[in-house]
Amino acid sequence: MSQSDPDAIPDAIIVGGGIGGLGAALALARKGLRARVLEQASTFGEVGAGLQIAPNCTRILAEYGLLDEARELGVAPADMIMFDALDASELTRLDLRDLERRYGFPYLVMHRSDLHALLLRGCERAGVELVTDSRVDGLAGDGTGVIRADGGVERADVVIAADGLHSVARASFVGDAPVSSSYVAYRGAMPIEDVRGNDVHEDAVVVYVGPRCHFVQYALRGGSMFNQVAVFESPRAKAGQADWGLPDELDQAFEGACEQVQRGIPLMWRDRFWRMFDRDPIDRWVFGRVALLGDAAHPPLQYLAQGAVMAIEDGWVLAEHAARNRSASGAVDWDAALAAYQAVRPEHCRRVQTTARDWGDLWHLDGPRRDRRNALLRDRDVRDYSFVDWLYGPTALEPGQEPEMFKPIPL
Ligand SMILES: Cc1cc2nc3c(=O)[nH]c(=O)nc-3n(C[C@H](O)[C@H](O)[C@H](O)COP(=O)(O)OP(=O)(O)OC[C@H]3O[C@@H](n4cnc5c(N)ncnc54)[C@H](O)[C@@H]3O)c2cc1C
Questions:
Q1: Does the pLDDT of residue 3 top 80, yes or no?
Q2: Ranges for the FAD-binding domain (predicted)?
Q3: Residue 8: Cβ-neighbour burial (10 angstroms; 0-12, 13-18, 19+)
Q4: Whose CA is nearest to atom 21 of ligand 1?
Q5: Is residue 324 situated within a structural domain?
Q6: Looking at the 3D structure of the chain, how many domains does it have?
Q7: Which residue, judged by its Cα, is nearest atom 48 of ligand 1?
Q8: How far apart are CA 367 and CA 363, in angstroms?
């Protein structure tokens, strides 16, 4: 990877080369701006398995000229189907082909390393400076630079903190803490042949929702791989114990699940797991010339599958406003661009973060409330998009373009 030239001051330093950081760097570079990404790891990469990317993200990938490649690398499933995890009955579905017609762009599922690599190649082509082994430990006192772990200071017109859940910049401006959900995720990606006898749906994104647990399945990489995510509430986390989320709790959590789910559990990776944290929404992301972006700004619980999607939207919005606030000489009025970003993104992402929490609660209901949920979902018209229009439509650039939220139905 390229080494940064300390004498050349870029327009933007981006802290963190995850999906959010690379998306922002690409968006800015496409507008002719010089972006430098500082990544703490020794290589750019992503850990984990599958990722769902909804039309509000594939619309942006199309604008970047990356959608065809994304389609080739991923899968465009025909349906998204929700089943009850106990009795395996179908609760509701989205017709994803009809959804593509409605929003103009597909709902894709991809290996997250494929999406990350796609953005990385885009950054390389666009001339982004990509610097590895470069951990940022703090911000320069005047807010127009960062301090690397080796003590070096790098300056730019603007600093974009895309350094994830444990963001250094967020810590210095906001000082809040991640919120534990007491839920943990196990993942697994395997050759499709390994699951063919398990009554799986190769052409759908499937979620089995059950009391305090759920199980997600979909095919990846042109259908040659299969992705599974098993998520459950940890009794040990609820009891305040430190050793929570271990494989014994995985097995117990799904003991009462239907056969389709039971068959999937032994295939989960057992050597690593992801404890699920989010943060409370904050209404300020811009502090002078420093802007939070991606999980640094709005880490969600994953139930709406919008975390990476929002991060990519953030970068697109920021770059659009940088371009709108650029003079004929090429200088960007960053204060105006950042103010426009601040005006529109926090409210959208607040909605996603809070709805993701509620959506997770709905998935994990037990007893009579589970029965009422199931009845409501079974009654839903499969062409009713009122619950997703606010998410999957075009990304708002101004507050007035933000669509109305859906009206929740009380259980
Ligand atoms: C189980 C699970 C399923 C999910 N499913 C989906 C889904 O289907 N769809 C979806 O859209 N989202 C999904 N998400 C959410 C999504 O993965 C995240 O929201 C997204 O990856 C956040 O990207 P980011 O670049 O903001 O942060 P990160 O991915 O955390 O990247 C931060 C980067 O910054 C680097 N970094 C950190 N600190 C520093 C530092 N001080 N100096 C330099 N570099 C630093 C890190 O090494 C890393 O490369 C899911 C999450 C989970 C846990």
A1: no
A2: 11-322
A3: exposed
A4: 308
A5: yes
A6: 1
A7: 18
A8: 12
Does some domain include residue 195? no
133's tokens: 């082994």
Residue 116, domain member (yes or no): yes
pTM of the predicted model over 0.90: yes
Calculated CA dihedral for residues 108, 111, 112, 118, nearest 10 degrees: -80
Range of the domain at 301: 12-177+279-401
Residue with tokens 């989320």: 245
Contact present, 296 and 16 (Cβ < 8 Å): yes
Give residue 2's pLDDT: 43
Q: Residue 4 above 50 pLDDT? A: no
Which ligand 1 atom sits nearest the alpha carbon of residue 57?
11
Per-residue model confidence as pLDDT tens digits over 296-342: 999 999 999 999 999 999 999 999 999 999 999 999 999 999 999 99
Cα(298)–Cα(356) distance, integer angstroms: 12
The tokens describing 189, both together, are 């990606």
Q: Hey, which residues are catalytic here?
A: 218
CATH of the domain at 287: 3.50.50.60
Instruction: Compute the C-alpha angle 309/310/311, nearest 5°.
Output: 90
- Which residue among 163, 276, 309, 314 has the greatest number of ligand 1 atoms within 8 angstroms of its CB, and so is best to mutate? 163
Q: Which residues line ligand 1 (CB under 6 A)?
A: 15-21, 38-41, 51-52, 135-136, 162-165, 168, 185, 229, 274, 294-295, 302, 305-309, 311
pLDDT in tens, 371-400: 999 999 999 998 999 999 999 999 999 999
Q: Give the C-alpha separation, 54 to 62, whole Å.
A: 12
- List, in order, residues 6 or more apart from 286 with CB less than 8 Å away: 292, 338, 339, 341, 342
Does some domain include residue 319? yes
| Ligand 1 centroid, distance to 259 Cα (angstroms) | 32
CA–centroid distance, residue 137 to ligand 1 (Å): 18
